Each structure stands twice: as C-alpha cells, then as structure tokens.
Amino acid sequence: MPSIAVTPHEENGNVSDLTAQGIKHALQKTAPSQLKSASLSDSTTQVHSANHQHDAPTPLAELDASLLQTTYTTSPRPVPALGSPEMASQKVCTDHMIQARWTSSTGWDAPTLQPYGPLSLMPTASCLHYATECFEGMKLYRGYDGKLRLFRPQLNCARMLMSTSRIALPGFPPEELLKLIVRLCATDGAKWLPKDRPGSFLYIRPTMIASDPALGVQRPTEALLFVILTCFAPMDALDGGMRLLASKDDMVRAWPGGFGYAKVGANYGPSLVAQGEARALGYHQILWLFGEECFVTEAGASNFFVVWRTREGVMQIVTACLTERIVLDGVTRRSVLELARERFAIGYEGLEAVEVVERKFSMAEVVEAVEEGRLIEAFAAGTAWFVAPVGHIHFRGKDFKVPMGENGQSGRYTAVVKEWLRGIMWGTNGQESHEWGHIVDEK
C-alpha cells in the first residue's frame, strides 16, 4: 500500500483544481522540501514548474528539530494511578510539551521543549473562528520487554502534513516532526510509563493551529505547532461489543470533494450533537452512512470492518475504500489490511483464508448478510478505540445483532488481528523487532 499522500488526488489529470494548486503553492512557500518529495504526476510537475519558473518565492526557514531549545519543569506533576478517575478523565498531561511557532515572513522558529501549560491566543485568532486546526492521534507504549515504542509514527507525521496543507496551515518536513515527538516521549516516558506498568500507554496529540490574530477570512500568517502527552484509559474492553447507531438522512460526516480524508477539527465538532444523542440512547458510536444508498463509511472516529461470507462462499474482510476521500486513511486501518493480506491469505491457525476487500458497500448488504447468516463478525479500528468488536447495530428502526464468537466477547478474526497488533505495539509474541515498532530511547 502506498505511503500517505501529501497532495490530494487529482482525477483525470486535472491540474487546474483550485484546492490541489493551492496546496502545492503553500508547500512551495512553507516547505519546499516536501513539494519536491510529493507524489505528483509528470504533467502536474511540468505545469506547476512552468507557472512559477519566473516568480519562485524565497524559501522560509523550515522546521528543524536540531534547533530544539529545552527548559525542564520545576513543578513536576503526579502520575495518576492505573484505573483511577484521573487516568480516565483524558485531562491529565505529562510534565512537558513541544511548541514551534511559524510566521509567513520568517518561517519556523526554533522549536522548544518546555513545561506543560496553557497557550496564549488573541480572541481574534484564526483557529477560534475558521476551524484552521488539525491534529494527529498516536500512542506511546510501554512494552512487556521494558521498551518504549511508537507504532508506525512516520505515517502519522506524513498525514499531518497532508492535513495542514488542506486547511492553509504551513508545511513541514514530517521527519522533523517525528524527531520532536520522539524527544518528548524520551523526556517524559520513563516517569509516566514506568517499567512496572507494562501494557500501558500514553496518548500523543500533535496539533497545529492558526494563531494569526487577524479576523479576516484569509490564509493564516501565523501558526503554532504543539505536541502533548495525555493519560488515557483503554477503550476497547466493551462487554458485549460496541453498540452502533447508524446515521440518518440528516446526518452526514463527510462528502466527496470535502475534507473527510484529513484529520481536521472541522470533521469532529459538527458530529458531537449526534454523538451525544447516541450515547444518551445507550450506543457507543455513530455508524456514519453516506448517500441514498447508505454506504458505510466510519464508526465514530474509527474505521469500520465487516467479516462475511459472500453468496458464492468466499470469506472476506471488507472496509470502505479511500477513492472518494470520504474515509480517513487510518494508520490502524492500513495496518489491519496489510497484516490480513499477508497472514490470512492461506488461513491462520484453523481460521479460513480470507480475501481482503476495499470497496463501497451499503447497509443493505450488511443487513442481507445478517439475515442470511453470512455475517461472521464486525469491528472498528483506530488509535483511540484500538480494535473493538461490534456486537450491535441499529439501522432504520431495527436492531441487528452482530455475531461475537463462541466466547461472546469477540469474533476470532477480530481477536487474532488485535493480538497481532498488540504484539508489535507492546513487543510480545516474537514481535519485539518488528519494523512497525519504533523504539524510543529513554533519557
């Protein structure tokens, strides 16, 4: 599977698309190294070069982790006990954070590692009015072998560049962001994920906001990148599986030509009303559908998978495709697909071989599979929820029970995929040296 793209897909080679051109122009100004490395067609590159060979702007300072300035806290924060309300609150952060400021006149300032604390913004800041904000979700894991690990962090950093470019925020070299994340994890990891807590994790939230104090609707001229580490309780242990409420006709999360493929704040705020109502009714997440055909897209903020047998008798793992750029190219999603294609191709420990399919599929197909006894199991996958089996879906006034395996807690394919990923993230089951596990050397 190809790496996460920097620039949006251009159908039929159309290089006049305003969004695509705007992203290229922004990268040329703010992170020319990324424009050079972006995956562009030859024709696009030629047109772009021809249009700008006489007016190439002077490159601004790019983000450079080697310039990091460090100030350690003099007021260390207490580490919450496992299972405590503080741990579950999602409000407790570690002792330090990363910050880096950008302006349109000078580029990136030297980044800082500094004590965790509040940000200073003017009331007219662009992010407070125009949703010029994006973020990533990652985790730092304390392995059972005593090591700290990140899971495929280069994919998150590449996706964040795509997201910032989509909403007129400055570009940056993803490898420099990764270096800053690693430095923060190395600084706070030993204290906040002690070696006597194997199997625990911290949530990592890299974020960029437009801090431009001008109220006008325009490209921001100032931005702030910051990275924090937050205590987070596991979310995947659900008795009876995840309960999903399928969205109705008046509820749309993303649409073709929009920005559903980017991890921007504007994707999440408008969904919170429906999400709150769903939880009040006893559901964990909204199963987001799209169009009159009720195509299945995502489960809350996670990718959604079904395991079913076709009418022809073929066992499949199916998830929504990325072609219309409605669905987020999740790192966990990508990893599930790659592992399933590699390890389920000829069956696995008594499990039948599986065909892995990425395509548009509708709720009508899911309902038919349930009614005909062909639905084997379903699960959601993402950084926050990890791999969570789905046990119940409510759609158009009807309840559909999703099989949960012999133990009533998880289907077998779901459990195996989850165990594979756990092994890589926490260094177990012979996966201590897997290439997806990025070791963090502790300070």
TrEMBL record:
UniProt-listed SUPFAM superfamilies: D-aminoacid aminotransferase-like PLP-dependent enzymes
Catalytic activity: L-valine + 2-oxoglutarate = 3-methyl-2-oxobutanoate + L-glutamate; L-leucine + 2-oxoglutarate = 4-methyl-2-oxopentanoate + L-glutamate; L-isoleucine + 2-oxoglutarate = (S)-3-methyl-2-oxopentanoate + L-glutamate
Domain of life: Eukaryota
Signal peptide positions on this chain: none
Entry-annotated residues carrying N6-(pyridoxal phosphate)lysine: 263
InterPro entries assigned: Aminotrans_IV, Aminotrans_IV_CS, Aminotransferase-like, B_amino_transII, BCAT-like_C, BCAT-like_N, BCAT_family
GO MF terms held by the record: L-isoleucine-2-oxoglutarate transaminase activity; L-leucine-2-oxoglutarate transaminase activity; L-valine-2-oxoglutarate transaminase activity
The keyword NADP belongs to this UniProt entry's keyword annotation: no
Record PROSITE patterns: AA_TRANSFER_CLASS_4
Major enzyme class: transferase
Cofactor field: pyridoxal 5'-phosphate
GO CC terms in record: mitochondrion
Annotated stretches, region: Disordered: 30-57
Keywords from the UniProt entry: Amino-acid biosynthesis, Aminotransferase, Branched-chain amino acid biosynthesis, Pyridoxal phosphate, Transferase
Enzyme Commission number(s) of this protein: 2.6.1.42
Entry's Gene Ontology BP terms: L-leucine biosynthetic process; L-valine biosynthetic process
Pfam families: Aminotran_4
Record keyword Amino-acid biosynthesis present: yes
Residue spans of biased composition, Polar residues class: 30-50
Family membership: Belongs to the class-IV pyridoxal-phosphate-dependent aminotransferase family.
Name of the protein: Branched-chain-amino-acid aminotransferase
Organism from which the protein derives: Paraphaeosphaeria sporulosa
